[in-house]
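Input record (one chain):
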Amino acid sequence: MKVSKFGGTSLANADQIRRALAIVRSDPERRYVVVSAPGKRGPQDQKITDLFYEWHRLSALRLSSNEIQQIIGTRYAEIVQDLGIEFNLKSELADISSRINSGASSDYAASRGEYLNGKIIALALGYEFIDPATCICFDRHGRYLKADDKLRSAIQGRRTVIPGVYGSLPDGSIKTFSRGGSDITGAIVARAIGASLYENWTDVSGLLMADPRVVEHPIKIEVVTYGELRELSYMGANVFHEEAMFPVQEAGIPTCIRNTNDPSDSGTHIVADGSPRKDPRVITGIAGRKNFTVITVEKVMMNQQIGFVRRILTVLEANGISFEHMPSGIDTLSVIIDDRQLNGKLQKVLDEVKAECSPDKIEAEPGMAMIAIVGQAMSHKPGVAADIFAALAKEKINIRMINQGSSEISIIVGVENADYERAIRAIYRAFVK
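The corresponding structure, as predicted from the sequence alone:
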């Protein structure tokens, strides 16, 4: 049995939906289909979910939402008409309008794009529609409750279409996962029914070894482990929702990222950590992000001061700040923080660290980029770090930080923001011949 999840771009209009229907019908093992709301049809278009959010915002302010409702209604009416199905769209929209006007939550409004699309696609496929509000559960604090038995009993043995992104709270009200959470719904369904494969259909033919905006025509990654993908996702490779990995990873279910517009392409397969690989390349992928700040603290005999690091971390915790890396020496320690975390708090943090730790010196340097070089084979190959450093040295790029995780499947280097693109291209050329 396969679970097939289709993203918003794969379901943006009737033509795209027909492609998705053909994919499902081409394989009888595709018994469970998870759908997103219609996405953008072009660069100037709007996502249906964003329109529902705006509808809810206007309603909360007691402002007219007629124009937004008209746009949503027209989008779905065109899909229904082009697919040639009988669907009482007017009644469904009237019910949604009544609930939003009566104070339904923004989560309810945001979920209606998936809800309507699920009903339409179930009719077009001849599959049964399952409302996840009846079988995907959150606790009263909004935390997802693992209730695979309940979900399994609702869908197993049937051919079903399940809207993504939402479930329900104990009081029956709608609760959504984070944005893009249809991937999570698909993974939960796959785990619940013990799928042989979780297919994630999108608008790209899998993951690429590097950002195509930085490296021209990078090679596609044929196979990646869940551990490698976690490292790449952390640094910004976001084709697949990060939280969606856990349900399928813990159940040992492989995932395949495939292109709705090119179903003949095999896509990228995500497999269990430690799985044997045929790819001779040492590096699986390269990913990175800009705009980090390095806070460097100097204190003579720091290594002999019990609790020194704890006091620094306490300051960060008190300010609601998480850190990325913390390289250290005998008398120095650096804390690397994403600028989005600092968000105007830098001087406050510096002042509080001074008060708590009495350092000999403390300074902050913004403008650093972090690049992760990831590959399961790296741990068995001597000289990988040397090749990375040689590639950067050849381009006269200064390395500001080096870190290798204990798993030895990634090396992270810090460079100046200005050197970011050149650094990625240099590393890519060093490992892709």
